[in-house]
Design a protein that fits this description.
It contains six helices and 16 strands. The relative contact order is 0.11. It is an alpha+beta fold. The strands form three sheets. Strands 1, 2, 3, 4, 5, 6, 7 and 8 form an eight-stranded antiparallel beta sheet that branches. A five-stranded mixed beta sheet has the order 11-10-9-12-13, sandwiched between helices. The chain is about 35% helix and about 25% strand. The protein has two domains: about 130 residues, no CATH class; about 200 residues, Nucleotidyltransferase, domain 5.
Length: about 325
């Protein structure tokens, strides 16, 4: 699996600052205007390849793995040092950095980046490939993503959980707050509130994904997620609103990332008709008097709608497993 370690540059001398500014600013001119100001030749290879589809104006400077080296020296100004190639000094310069994350001990350094934070300070985004041994998980944990509840979880052992029930309250509160500030023409406050909402939602996504992975590890389950890819069509207008309001793909990536670190396998299953099919009898003669209530006309069952969908996701995965097709739905296709 791949992990990204965010590192802050420390202990820059005037010359090293000059080197980073020369290569970083020169790279911007090369990527945006095609003007070569004499930057190191390997950086120029990124144009039209590594950043072909990136549209934002400030580009992170690529740090090619085959041209760099990282050393650990805890007794110096910085605990870690990385060599940066430059036209201004033969052999490059060593730049110190530190990180709040633990540096991987058995990870292989991949192509990484030098970028800037919101205050204009330099940062490294080091990307590592870490070998992970997958654990055999005999049980299944299914996850249904929703609007009222961020995630409804059930497993093949009969355990059930409703996670992220406060997501709608958070969204409604900040929507009301942004409108109120917008009516008063306080545009800077609106932007600040939007950033705060993003942080609060992101924190909730981390907590929910951690609970899901912890539950899967405890009960020895692989994780199965409903896949909504390709479902954004006109006939699914109500579902479209859910997908756009809830950061579905971010939650999926958090679950995938945390699970892979522990060797837990994660799969995706098409979610088509899982919310309209009765998990007990398989009938589609169903209705939902309310968002939370599911009723089946064939077997007269009344059930929680989100939980019904989660059970259907689990049952559908069992069918794929029995027909040896589950590997085709591995979440690696997201990468």
């Amino acid at each position: 699996m791949k992990i990204t370690v965010c590192c802050g540059v420390v202990g820059l001398t005037d010359f090293k600052k000059k080197v980073l500014d020369f290569e970083y600013n020169g790279f911007q001119n090369w990527m945006i205007f095609g003007i070569d100001q004499g930057i190191y030749s390997s950086y120029k290879t990124a144009k039209g390849w590594k950043f072909k589809k990136i549209k934002y104006r400030e580009y992170p400077l690529p740090i090619w793995s085959q041209l760099t080296k990282i050393e650990n020296n805890p007794n110096s100004v910085a605990p870690y040092w990385i060599r940066i190639k430059t036209k201004l000094k033969r052999g490059g310069v060593w730049v110190g950095f530190k990180t709040k994350q633990e540096m991987p001990k058995n990870g292989k350094l991949l192509d990484s980046f030098l970028t800037k934070d919101s205050k204009g300070n330099y940062e490294f985004r080091l990307i590592f490939e870490i070998p992970v041994q997958k654990i055999s998980m005999p049980n299944i944990l299914a996850v249904d993503i929703g609007d009222k509840r961020l995630a409804t979880v059930c497993d093949s052992l009969g355990n059930k959980k409703f996670l992220g029930t406060e997501i709608r309250k958070i969204r409604t509160h900040y929507l009301w707050l942004r409108r109120r500030l917008g009516n008063k023409k306080l545009l800077e406050k609106v932007k600040s509130v939007g950033n705060k909402e993003q942080r609060v939602v992101n924190q909730l996504l981390h907590r929910v994904s951690k609970e899901i992975v912890t539950m899967a590890l405890k009960n020895k389950c692989c994780i199965v997620l409903g896949d909504l890819k390709g479902i954004r069509q006109k006939k699914y207008k109500k579902l479209n609103r859910i997908i756009f309001k809830i950061p579905y793909y971010k939650l999926v990536n958090y679950i995938k990332y945390k699970a892979e670190k522990l060797g837990i396998q994660v799969y995706k299953i098409k979610e088509y008709m899982t919310s309209k099919t009765c998990h007990k009898c398989g009938s589609t003669k169903t209705k939902r008097p309310s968002q939370s209530l599911f009723k089946c006309s064939s077997c007269n069952i009344e059930y929680n709608a989100d939980l019904n969908a989660a059970i259907n996701i689990m049952n559908r995965f069992k069918d794929y497993m029995s027909s040896n097709r589950a590997s085709a739905y591995a979440l690696n296709s997201f990468a």
